[in-house]
Amino acid sequence: MSNLLLRELSLLGLRGPVITADHQDYERYRKVWNGVADRRPAAIVRPRSVDDVRKAIHAAAASRALLAVRGGGHSLPGFSTCDDGLVLDLSELAAITIDREARTIEVGGGALLGDLDRATVPEGYVVPAGVISHTGVAGLTLGGGMGWVSRKYGLTIDSLLGAEIVTAGGDVVWASETSDPELFWGIRGGGGNFGVVTRFKFRMHPLASIAVGRWDYPAASMRQALLALREQAHGQPRDFTLSFTVTATGLNVTTVWSGADALAHAALSPFGMLADGGVGSIDRLPYLTLQSRNDEHFAWSRRYYCKGGFWSDVSDEAIDTMLLSVADAPTADSEVYAIQLGGAISDIADDATAYTGRGAGYYWIAEPVWDDAADDECCIAWGRTTGKSLSKLSMAGNYVNEQADAGTVVALDAYGVEKYQRLARLKTRLDPHNLFRLNQNITPQA
Fold it and tell me: Which domain holds residue 35?
């Protein structure tokens, strides 16, 4: 099959390079963010135009090769690479154009969150997105996208105005509220099931100055601190959000204020007094610094597993489960992380987009992080066990971007039966042969 794929690619006159195992850059370009996903594709195409994308899709379909679409390469299960198939690496399709008068921005399918932030923030604007700057815009957006200003401005998909998509049949279509609204519904949470997005158009929002409080609490104080955090978080305005990370050594609490400067200290300072032993401070922080402060911890080529879910609130049972789990964590960087939701996210009806979880108060992630392949088995086992325990305390629905396991059951659990069936009908129309199956896959209807 790989020989057939290479022959198809050679006939197409691609502008971008075709990188195979004998190419000097093969080792560089075959690698993705999660070191666990160590795979060897037959070819890597780095398109320089939408027409290149069309041709690469045709080659994969004609040769029946496995097709992996790579935006930023951050897929936890390794969907952005494959063995023996074709990787469509969109890195060179990363152009960004701002319309200042309309307050919109168009972003290429290969752009990273750091590219997006560096374009918008100096202009005084922001598009709500994730919290690691080397994440790809495409994958994050197609799953939903949540971050520091989501309580104020919603998910990333809530700022999406339209997208250019190359379908399995090679058509180039525009999806928006007025142009194929059903596809537009599906790409807002349905992942990469329906084609390759080569361009996004987002609404930009005003960005206020940012104040960040960050405190560390010792292990002995974690339960007290988490109970107090839960109560203090209730009723906070949309200018406020928080996250917390629980590890064997202690609790980290990060609070972010994006409203009026005069109100920042009063909103954030109580989170430095949740329990005895808290150490930290409140600082004015450039938004670009906030967005990249975790980049090194979640660096490329480290090894990751993740399972997540939604809470309506942080229950006593969830606190006890987290503390019990991290006490038995296999590595120092194995953690349970949660980010506060609500606010503008909950303004939109749950059935308005494919994303499920509008009514949640928090999103949690059980995430072991490690560096030695010899620790794969114990770290993944810990992540699955911890995730299973926390899932029993969680709401229905899930977030497809933060699941390291794959399979139809993952997508069904994420969307629920009604949404899954609607997505399956859309999948059947646009990709009946399931060419785009390296994702939390929606199976076409028979």
Answer: 2-89
User: Cβ distance 119 to 202 under 8 Å?
Assistant: no
**Residue 1: predicted pLDDT:** 60
* β-sheet with 86-89: strand ranges across: 18-19, 43-45, 86-89, 67-70
Residue 426 forms part of a structural domain: no
CA distance 262 to 340: 23
Q: How many domains does the chain have?
A: 3
Q: What's the pLDDT at 11?
A: 86
- Cα 52 to Cα 86: distance, rounded to the nearest angstrom: 13
The pLDDT assigned to 18 comes to 95
Question: Following DSSP, what letter does each residue of 373-413 receive, concatenated?
Answer: GGGHHHHHHHHHHHHHHHHTTS-S---GGG--S-SHHHHHH
C-alpha–C-alpha distance, residues 180 and 301, integer Å: 38
Whether residues 202 and 227 share a domain: the answer is no
CA distances (Å), 75 to each of 138, 140, 402, 411, 436, in order?
11, 9, 9, 15, 14
Chain mean pLDDT for the chain: 97
Contact between 197 and 109 (Cβ < 8 Å): yes
Provide the greatest CA pair distance for the chain. 68
Is residue 205 within 8 Å of 238, Cβ to Cβ? no
Positions of the chain with pLDDT lower than 50, given as ranges: none
Helix residue ranges per DSSP H, 293-332: 316-326
Which of 187, 206, 225 finishes a domain? 206
pLDDT score, position 2: 80
Residue with tokens 């879910």: 309
Cα angle for residues 270, 271, 273 (degrees, 5° grid) = 70
Structure tokens at 342: 């609500």
Give strand ranges (E) for 121-232: 125-126, 160-166, 172-176, 196-203, 205-206, 211-218
